[in-house]
Amino acid sequence: MKIHNRKKYLSFLKFKRDFQQFGLEKVRSYELILHWLNSRLSRNQFLLLSGILVGLTAGMAGVILKTLVHNIHYFITHKVHFEYQILFYIVFPFLGIVLTTITVQTLFKGQDRKGIGAILYEIAQNSSIVSSVKMYSQIVQSAITVGLGGSAGLESPIAVTGAAIGSNYAQTYRLSYKERTLLLAAGASAGIASAFNAPIAGIMFAFEILLTGVVFTDFIPLVVAAVCGSLLSRILLQEDVLFRFYTREAFNYKNVPYYLILGIVTGLYARYFVIISQKVEHFIQKLKMSPLRRAMFGGAVLSLLCVLFPPLFGEGYDTIKAFTNGDTLLIIENSLFRYFEFKNFTIIIFLIFVLVLKAFATPFTIFSGGNGGNFAPSLFAGGTAGFLFAVVCQQIGFKEVPMTNLVLVGMAGAMSGILYAPLTAIFLIAESSFGYDLFIPLMIVSVISYLMAKRFSPISPELKSLADQGKIFTNKHDKNLLFSLNTKDYIDFQSQTINVNASVTELFEMIKNGNKNTFAVVDDIGKLKGILSLDDIRPYLFSKETDSLSILKIMKAPPAVIYPDKKALEILQVFDDTGYWNLPVVDENNRFIGFISKSAILIGYRQLLKLYSE
């Protein structure tokens, strides 16, 4: 055993010396160990290890953010006298959005792309390469926004943070596009799992929202990442921070009519929420204001809403827990409605206003300069709708209304219709409430709401905004447009070539006089032998040993070749699989024709889309 361990140690020292020969002396010790493990372990073994490390890191980010925001909320809502709380509701939501905007403009140079759309954009447009800044920027921004009362959720920022962690991990260890996308999704699923302590929901989130149309045969890293993230939150988070519901009724098939009606109610509300959010977004974007003034305007609107209706303050999970625990008085005790005589009619009017205005509070928070997502708002709105529906049924005269169950399945219904994620919603509520016997009502409500949402719009709002820009392709219409593109129209026939036997001096001269960034290496009859990019050539530009260099030594094999009869949609898939933006086009005899770029196809698609929409 000692001899075996000594051999491993000597092998590691040799790897370290070889690594340092490439000018990488500044690599951290733990990174060097992982590089060595990557060279020693099989692909599946290293991906499994990677899933664990990414899951733990993303889970810890989620724990830190949830704990920070919970402590701020607890101080504002429990440690301050009511008269001062009103002042807090006026000041802090306004301050949260303004400070977030200042932080984005000063610390993060205006990079404010946020939400699940940010992850989808990086997968579709940036080969799953996420900026390292997003590993901490989303935590800082959302902690300020939601911690000080922004009416949004922490789950989307946590997912973006986890995705950035997974992507940068994969970049550090030079993993392929496919593996990079897998670990990006693993980080996001671990973030969601830690936020809700729901590993299955985290996995469903990755497959249902992030990896739409992407098939992975090796999804074990997703599973272990979600489990690690969930386990970490379970160990470290306090019980009152966890998204947990312990009170509920057993499922009774006689209550199915309630769930059928609630599915329709949440489906209609989800559509209302989406429409209002889009209108508020367009309204704010049209404001001719500086980012800071826009934040001040949005913050003022949000503060006013929070003063009138305190449940709009923050994520709103405390209100949902009050619904399930039967603490109805807690819902209005901090509002101006506390001065009215408490009756069921009062609570009904109050909750109707809360539901209507939640659809305004959330987009004003997010689009005026704050940072957050629609996870928590959709759950809050669904739980409120379920509770309101139960109270109305009781007032009408129905007996034995399953109030707690209606709150729980209402959350799943609204989430399904707003986020277009029924499976995520079903498993999230089932795991969070230990309500696996509620699968039937959860499926009824979620499917009805989802189908209604799909009837109004085939794809989710976040996907639609990217699809309208030509960033992703989501439906048959998009694919038909892509199939109508003629591949030959997007080939650069003026691409520069150099003979494989040419001298490096000739190559440098061609670079000096040309305007291309990528070059094809061909033989005497024009057959493709390899490719070169400026990045490949740059290390040799000022070298004094050019005499010993040859094109053959510098060039590299293309990751893939394109044939002119391939359709644009198939070519885009090759671009996504390889992570490249320029690929060579050859004929059936491997003779070089030219380069084709991903950008050219996307521009052609956008032009065609614009033509069809006019």
UniProtKB/TrEMBL annotation:
UniProt cross-references to Pfam families, sorted A to Z: CBS, Voltage_CLC
Any single Gene Ontology cellular-component annotation = chloride channel complex
Q: Which UniProt keywords apply?
A: CBS domain, Chloride, Chloride channel, Ion channel, Ion transport, Membrane, Transmembrane, Transmembrane helix, Transport
Q: Does the keyword Transmembrane apply?
A: yes
Q: What Gene Ontology molecular-function terms does this entry list? A: chloride channel activity
- Where is this chain's protein located in or outside the cell? Membrane
- Highest taxon above the source species: Bacteria
According to the entry, every stretch annotated as the CBS domain falls at 491-548, 555-611
Coarse class of the protein's main subcellular location: membrane
Stated membrane topology is:
Multi-pass membrane protein
Coiled-coil ranges from the UniProt annotation: none
User: Could you list the residue ranges that cross the membrane?
Assistant: 46-66, 86-108, 182-207, 219-237, 258-275, 295-313, 345-369, 375-393, 405-428, 434-453
Q: Please name the PANTHER family in this protein's record.
A: CHLORIDE CHANNEL PROTEIN CLC-E
Q: What name is this protein filed under?
A: Chloride channel protein, CIC family
Organism of origin: Epilithonimonas hungarica
